[in-house]
Write a structure and sequence with these properties.
With 378 residues, this protein is an alpha+beta fold. It folds into two domains: 228 residues, P-loop containing nucleotide triphosphate hydrolases (Rossmann fold), CATH 3.40.50; 136 residues, OB fold (Dihydrolipoamide Acetyltransferase, E2P), CATH 2.40.50.100. Helices cover 22% and strands 36% of the residues. It is built from eight helices and 20 strands. The strands form four sheets. A six-stranded mixed beta sheet has the order 6-7-8-3-9-10, sandwiched between helices. A five-stranded antiparallel beta sheet has the order 13-12-11-14-20. Strand 4 and strand 5 form a beta hairpin. The longest helix has 18 residues. Bound molecules: adenosine-5'-triphosphate. Adenosine-5'-triphosphate binds next to helix 1.
Length: 378
């Protein structure tokens, strides 16, 4: 399928600073696509260029095959929802939503019908005559979404739309946004620095860092198969381990020496050979915690260490376990049967077990690059 919205080699500089650097990105019709990254990575700049509030220095933006780069915002079939809602305070909910169609000189009956449809979509019929100041944050954002959608844009741009709301409300609105997306079926581009939001709403995510895209893919692929340390650390939590390949067991598995706790088996998801220095990501939930030494197969690992920190999160507990030079974080989900057991506590010796498949090989280096490897932060 061809791209619906295409950023083609787009660069934007502010003085000597490059905010967006040669980004090429294809977004499909009807998908919810997120731009995710830390503050200052260039995601809002990219979105603003799609909206027409900003222009690329080089490159172009195509919508449905048409070059929209030179068009001003009001001539693009695109609307934006901002974190700050940007509602007209003196207008009612109904008139806020009807503002765009009114400016477009639609007739009164069409405006009424379209606004009613939007009020229904965002479940605000009962609040149609209220002013924004009489609404909650979540209701205001629903007005902003309705006000954007009533113009029947081809693409809806959402710039951190939930950032001003508390956690529970954010979670509820995410579900509502998803339902709205299913209903209207248009392309959503969602900017956020919150990986949980991006994971839960997106068909695909582009992870940005310093003006470039590090990885694009569906949420599960980004989480399960990060291509760089940056992505592995930014999406969820992870442990990083550095080591040296000592032996190729077969085409799939190798043995690797992790300084400080000895030899482990890894899955060669990238080709490696003895002597290579590797950087491995191991998610906390992949590490199984036990008091007793587990029996392991040839493709599993078990190491022991001392519990240095325990944090209880209700649904799960996180353990920080000192294993030689490394401090590994392991996450244990709570199951009913475990309530009878006494969970490990600070100072206890525990075993961490994982399968070679659970680790993820990131960057690798030849021996001459040894100084590139770093120990993880405590
Ligand atoms: P945040 O989540 O904090 O909004 P972001 O990823 O959306 O971050 P951008 O707003 O795209 O980041 O900004 C990217 C970089 O470009 C930042 O370092 C920012 O300071 C810089 N920048 C953005 N707009 C301008 C501008 N008009 N003039 C100068 N620098 C700018």
């Amino acid at each position: 399928m061809g791209a619906y919205l295409r950023f083609e080699n787009v660069t934007r500089r502010f003085g000597s600073f490059t905010a967006v650097s040669g980004v090429t990105l294809d977004i499909q019709q009807g998908e919810t696509f997120s731009l995710l990254g830390p503050s200052g990575c260039g995601k809002t700049t990219l979105l603003r260029m799609a909206a027409g509030f900003d222009r690329p220095d080089t490159g172009r933006i195509l919508l449905d095959g048409k070059d929209i780069t030179p068009l001003p915002p009001d001539q693009r079939p695109v609307n934006t929802v901002f974190q700050s809602y940007a509602l007209f305070p003196h207008l009612s909910v109904r008139d806020n939503i009807g503002f765009g169609p009114k400016m477009a000189k639609k007739d009164a009956a069409t405006i009424r019908r379209d606004v009613d449809q939007m009020l229904e979509l965002v479940d605000l019929k009962a609040h149609a005559d209220k002013k924004p100041s009489q609404l909650s944050g979540g209701q205001k954002q629903r007005v902003a979404i309705a006000r954007a959608l009533v113009n029947k844009p081809k693409v809806l741009l959402l710039d951190e739309p939930l950032a001003a709301l508390d956690l529970k409300l954010r979670q509820r609105l995410l579900v509502e946004l998803d339902a709205i997306h299913d209903e209207v079926g248009i392309t959503f581009i969602y900017v956020t620095h919150d990986q949980g939001e991006a994971m839960s709403i997106s068909d695909r995510i582009a992870v940005m860092n310093k003006g470039v895209i590090e990885q694009i893919g569906p949420p599960a692929e980004i989480y399960e198969a990060p291509r760089s340390s940056f992505v592995a650390a930014f999406i969820g939590d992870t442990n990083f381990l550095d080591g040296k390949i000592t032996e190729a067991m077969d085409s799939r598995f190798s043995r690797c020496d992790i300084c400080g706790f000895g030899s482990i088996v890894i899955d060669n998801d990238k080709p490696v050979r003895p002597g290579d220095l590797i950087h491995l990501s191991l998610r906390p939930e992949k590490l199984l915690v036990s008091r007793d030494q587990p029996a392991v197969s040839a493709t599993e690992n078990a190491i022991s260490g001392k519990v240095e920190d325990v944090i209880y999160f209700g649904s799960h507990t996180r353990y920080w376990v000192r294993c030689g030079e490394w401090r590994l974080c392991a996450e244990m989900q709570h199951r009913k049967f475990q309530l009878d057991e006494s969970p490990p506590k600070w100072g206890d010796t525990v075993w961490l077990r994982w399968h070679a498949n659970d680790g993820f090989l990131l960057e690798q280096y030849r021996e001459e690059d040894e100084e590139l490897l770093t120990l993880p932060e405590d």
